């Protein structure tokens, strides 16, 4: 029967899964590597078939550019600059999202405000914030942090709040039964209970922070000195150094993969998977 | 028989601004179609597209989504150099000469030498755009060091930079800009001119140019000739009817600008609508000197297609 | 057996006065319980006995402060019952009342820290003690999702007991337990009450359990739950095997089984077998 | 009472052969049940009786095909048990087994449409019929979250019964029901078995229920669950009040209560009361 | 006690809430209006205080521009164009997200692929897709639809997949018990069970579709004829018609509010709130 069950769809795999967790983890890694290799080969093949290095360099050319970029130290410095901005904006976004979501779960007014602000501001592109950002924060890094915050705040708040709202009634009653204060109720009951959704929000926020950073670096007044990886991409794009452009994008992909593997997966494994909140 | 081999549709991309007036006139007055008929060719299906920035232009051109791109002369030369042996882009025609001006709202700034660490110079694009290159040329002339001012530059689109400069509430104290933003800023009384690109280049120079791939130009010589003829016709019309040209521009762009204001820009003696490239080699020489291009064209004819060689370019 | 109204206690711990609970509003409103009036003195253990869906859980939730009342009043020590609090610890009917992100020990310890304000060490000690008493020392560090249904309920029981509340609200707490464990839990409950003087509001479907655990049994009519009888359990009846027990059991059994639930029992026309 | 191994059926519906179930791996592995060997003929109703946490639910899940076996084999009609299917309808122990987005009627009808391939109208008719039999006609159009615990379980029971499976897997299905409703459900179960020849694997903590429902009782030892006794229920014992019933009940009671669960029972040192 | 309970935090409001749902809905609307008025006043006040119409026009000036824009028909036409693109991209994104998520819940390989692609592609800015978009779809609308699809696909897939993974075991077992085919299991069990998360994903996808559309309209090329609201914003920005720029943004906000109120709220009320999956 073990065979039969294993043949069943993975989505419906029995909860006994932890049984061979250790071996599975190794297995997963293996599959990821195969998939990554496959994607790289696909890229290489398509780019060669296309034969237009100005538009789409081969994977190998991109890797060469990446290695050179890191060897020269430029790509590393640019990545560091971007990551610094990103983390500041991400942090600020998380703090604001936490505050807004807390407010929303504490009072009807807060809930209405969160819903309203999310529906109104979330669709606005970063450009829309430009005038206000420049007014409040001036040129350069602080404005960038501001738009990154905007990019992170809404997805995280929306996901978390949706998570809060679907915490089962019994769990809520358990928390209230202990006479918890509002902050404790939020931090010690709602947040862990909504962690799967919060984590999904954090992942999305992270991705949108990147997107926004890159898109905004051009419009938001960065100077050659302080430019991050967006600057690297744009200047190389303007010079048709396409391999470098893709090296920059590949860097973002690599950072994404590392953060996903180390941070988000790790966090999920240490929490919601361990707690049985996720299959 | 040869005409039939040529393209039936022509996809032309422009950017924002009055610098693209010849394109706008050609579009609105259907000059390309007219010239084609005059040349005995079937009128091509012309599609006019607006794109922002030279990079998107280049990518679209190289991807074959565009037939004719347009950008500042400096980025075009850069692209010409970068694509030698691959996409092989080549200039089709200049889109006129007009000065760009470095303005400032800081009364203390009278020349490049007066900039301090507190000043910020807004440029519409990064590093290799038209204005950054001219600024570097000016810095080279002033300080003997072309990247002397790079640390003061920030990238900000023309309209935003203008708003910032005029607001007086921002770190932006200078802006290297193009018509009509120059005239708007100067007219407000809040900014003054610090530097004129004509002074840097030593005279009138091409601002924008239309370009395509060698392959397209060679496969469609008649269409290209028609295009150049249409641009020439547009330029002639603009010069002859500045008031009407202003009105046409305002109508086409749904602009809220005052027609008299636009007309004044068109009538500005520094502004010349011509397809002949001017001082293109000054740009290429500088770009070669600072290592941005690997080959220094001996003559402007290397940069532009043969159909233009009869013009009095430079 | 008619409705035996409780003589009003002079200084009741809990008093329900004409309590009515409803769900929904307007035409679609469902009345869960209607007009419940009963007092609980300190040390009383009131068992709610009634058919499925008659509103027992709703009533417990109302007393716990989890649910508003739609008619009548609930007073705790003379004051209107307010927000939920650890003075009224509840064992809910559902299996998902443990915090999934805390271990068995963590669940009980956390409740003690927050509900009783104990420091971590003291809370941990007391938690271990109670987890041992419900027989779960083996799974001290297990997360709730790895427990069986009965084990989860025992953790919730340990948590409620450990907090030594004035009033315990227990909603079919032992339903998922085997006979032996159930008896042990009943013993623990009685011992706790004796020790701390706690009062209990207890829902069960077992008549013998009702007699064993309760000082009084409130039997409710089928949906919507109305008071059918409030029966004191004489001390003599508490021992199984005595005639007093047998008599009370028989009378309760007749009360529950005899009057068929017109609402929840299948109409005779619908039944094919049995 | 020793382990009475079942004489192998000639053509069993279900046969468990040395079944062992484990959770986790390596040092942290927990064995839920060990070495269970038993056959079920068509029409047999095997009751699993055993202390909380001894692996009854796990065993049911394994037979249902929801969980892999870690030792031994489970055969259904001679073939290794495969993916879950409507031929083995389960009533789970948990209250959240209804689809929250379907009404009471919708839940049962949907199961009939998908599990039996009936068209909507036929399925609806049969669903109504069964919902009536579990006494829930009143809440036909209610969503599960508005039901009481016992009502939810009854919907699940109606759903399982309506599908008329070859093998019913019932995990403490009547635990949340009052005595009257419980008896009605037992009757429905027995009638259904008689009518369709269904076999049943039934978990309960009630000894009287075990005798009433089962043709055989398999009593399991405390964690990890091993076979302690497999006792056929003589026809004579099925009627409550008979001496055969009383004898069997007493013997099972002694079996369950007598041998204290060394693991789950509180160590004597830890107990302070009662 | 009713009073006492109502005084309790809204997050912990008892499940009896549906009791006065009808009156509550009216109440909600009232609060929203108050909040909206407050935000409008704040805008007006701040803009007046600033006194720089070039950077930030007043609310009233923006409304005037909005009314004029709609009166002239231009804003309406632009909005219609944008909405059309948006819906196409949104639709394509949803279909792809559904396919990817289905694949992910059917096989281990699919799951790994989804996780990998999300981690890799989600952070990439639209500009990274430009070369490929131009190659595949050329300039203009199809490319725009392509990047909108990219913007929608990942948040929806990620949220849905997170939702799928946190469907409780008992519910999964119920579905499997009926011997459902894989597509049925996904559509009839996993999807409704994960609806709170899917809805959150749809909301986010909607917002990101807008953001991307506006930002991409220029980069990806439009002709004056076919330009949408992004074109409106850009052309007005190029002409320093700031009131019109904000009228364009206000239009996005209004569309967002309408879609939220009619579509998402309506959907939530008709489903997860009715089913008790959300408090
Ligand atoms: N959230 C709710 N919305 C609407 N009706 C509800 C809700 N909760 C319970 N009810 C209804 O109220 C009545 C009483 O439910 P309650 O859970 O209190 O019953 P109970 O006595 O605990 O039943 P059981 O013994 O089955 O647990 C039932 O008819 C039920 O349908
Ligand atoms: N998902 C799981 N992971 C790890 N251990 C588990 C898991 N599920 C159950 N167990 C363990 O397996 C054993 C048997 O559990 P099971 O639920 O089968 O017991 P049970 O006999 O049904 O108990 P109850 O009568 O309390 O419902 C228990 O010790 C439990 O801790
Ligand atoms: Mg109940
Ligand atoms: Mg069990």
UniProtKB/TrEMBL annotation, chains A, E:
Coiled coil, from the record: none
Keywords carried by this UniProt record: Cell membrane, Membrane, Transmembrane, Transmembrane helix, Transport
PROSITE patterns: ABC_TM1 (PS50928)
InterPro entries xrefs: MetI-like, MetI-like_sf
Location of the protein in the cell: Cell membrane
A Pfam short name: BPD_transp_1
Domain ABC transmembrane type-1, chain residue ranges per copy: 79-263
GO biological process: transmembrane transport
Record-stated family: Belongs to the binding-protein-dependent transport system permease family.
Protein name per UniProt: NitT/TauT family transport system permease protein
Native source species: Nitrospirillum iridis
Taxonomic lineage of the native organism: Bacteria, Pseudomonadati, Pseudomonadota, Alphaproteobacteria, Rhodospirillales
UniProtKB/TrEMBL annotation, chains C, D:
InterPro entries: AAA+_ATPase, ABC_transporter-like_ATP-bd, ABC_transporter-like_CS, ABC_transporter_ATP-bind, P-loop_NTPase
Source organism: Nitrospirillum iridis
GO molecular function: ATP binding; ATP hydrolysis activity
Signal peptide residues on this chain, from the entry's feature table: none
Family: Belongs to the ABC transporter superfamily.
Keyword Nucleotide-binding: yes
Domain ABC transporter: 14-247
SUPFAM superfamilies in alphabetical order: P-loop containing nucleoside triphosphate hydrolases
Protein name: NitT/TauT family transport system ATP-binding protein
Pfam family name, one: ABC_tran
Higher taxonomy: Bacteria, Pseudomonadati, Pseudomonadota, Alphaproteobacteria, Rhodospirillales
Keywords: ATP-binding, Nucleotide-binding, Transport
